[in-house]
Design goal:
With about 110 residues, the chain is an alpha/beta fold. Helix content is about 40%, strand content about 30%. The chain has a single domain, classed as Transcription Regulator spoIIAA (2-Layer Sandwich), CATH 3.30.750.
Length: about 110
């Protein structure tokens, strides 16, 4: 898994590539927590290059969403891969996340 973070004035963009599974989910969660502690209450997940996500990743997504909502923030997705879309649909959590077709439209939403 590879993670890159870009901070903008009102939002942090986290780009993820590769697999998010039981062994990489803790690192993914730590990166998201670090970004929240950097006073970013709005986060965009660019998951275009994610080719697998396990239930560990789903847990990270849900706990991060809940934490951000608690401080008046949002967690949204930009351009999720087909695998991400299908996994979230099967898990029934696709309705919980705003999804944008690309990173630029997600950033413009903030």
């Amino acid at each position: 898994m590879e993670i890159s973070i870009h901070e903008y004035k009102r939002v942090g963009v986290v780009s993820v590539a590769g697999r998010i599974d039981g062994s990489t989910a803790p690192e993914f969660e730590a990166q998201l927590k670090d970004l929240m502690q950097a006073v970013k209450k709005n986060i965009i997940l660019d998951m275009e290059a994610v080719d697998f996500m396990s239930s560990s990743c789903l847990r990270v997504l849900l706990t991060t969403r809940k934490a951000l909502m608690g401080i008046g923030g949002r967690l949204v997705m930009a351009n999720p891969s087909k695998r991400v879309t299908v996994t979230m649909d099967i898990a029934g959590i696709d309705v919980l996340f705003e999804v944008f077709p690309d990173r630029e439209s997600a950033i413009a939403n903030f």
